[in-house]
Amino acid sequence: MAAKRDNELQPELGRSLCRVRTEEGNYRGYKKDILTENLSERDNAVFACPRCKGILRELCISTDGEQFCSCCKKEREQTHPNIHVNNMILCFKCYCPLISRGCDWLGTLGDCENHLDTCGYVQEMCKLKCGVVLQRNDHVTHEKENCVQRIVKCEHCKKNFKFCELTEHLDVCPKMKVSCKLKCGVVMCRDKVAQHLGKECGQVEELCKLRCGMKLTRDELRIHVTDNCVQRVVTCEHCDKNFKFCELTEHLDVCPKVEVSCKLKCGVVMCRDKVIEHIDRDCKEKEIECPFAKYKCVKLIKRQYLDTHLEEKETEHLKLKLDAIEDIVVKQSELIEKQNKTIADQGLMITKQNETITGQGKMIIKQNETIGLMVTKQNEAMANQVNMILEQDETITGQGGMITEQNETIGSQ
Q: Which pTM does this prediction carry?
């Protein structure tokens, strides 16, 4: 039987179901309708309680001879039991009071209450206190499969919860599989979501790590940093050097290995670093000086027409060369004449310098002679002074001898 809430079914006191219930809610004698055979009028007069109208239960007899159920006696009423009749009543055949629900038990009134203690059709409150009232037969199934208070194991984290708490738990269960909230398609345990969003999810938006300022999803960034970012490093296909993509256009304007056409439009294509060399040495459109420019051929001509020019102007070039040679000869003659004049002037200067040196030599000789005389005189004067000093020494020595003698004379006296 399906479980119903307590506002539809009420819990029942099992062993009391075979007894009459008064308006006050008290249980008295046995119900008559559970007997297998109806009582005759004679038996009804003997075995029925006049107070509760049920079959006597634990028969008591008052002092005035009235018989009734022990639970129907009044307070302080004197009674005594009738065991023989009680035993007869307990042997009456009866059905289970719940026969209408399907119970097929058949026994005696004496066993009916004990039967109702275990009858599977008695309605009781769920033992797990979920508030549902149901027959005992349905308790096992209800407590295993339907009771909101039953203990169930979370299939994800393997912990036990009441069924009524399971839905709330599943909203936070760390081991429950969930799809990424950013709809990247990845399914993971809830406790891995933070890690997934922090490092793995391709739909999380981040700033480009190359600092171009773009904010894209990680999946978009994987393509962006390799194919679209203006800050990505690319290799110049011409010089094989690395540059930021945003600098590549500027680099290509100066890259020495980019092939360019000659700016003089001669039709030759070459690397940019060969352009100057090409124009200086090979370009047919380059205007160059005639090889006889040093002989005053002032014509500028394109390199491709140089041979033609030399052929056409051969005679004129020879005349220019001869004129130039004559000019050189004249200039050299004038230069030689100037050099000769300079040499002559230098010869006169040398002669004057020699005369000056000779005069200075004579002056030096005279000075040396004068110095020699002065030295001789000084030497003679010094010799005289020495002699004078020697004479003074002799005089002093003589005086010393005299003094010595005087001292000896004085000493002898």
A: 0.46
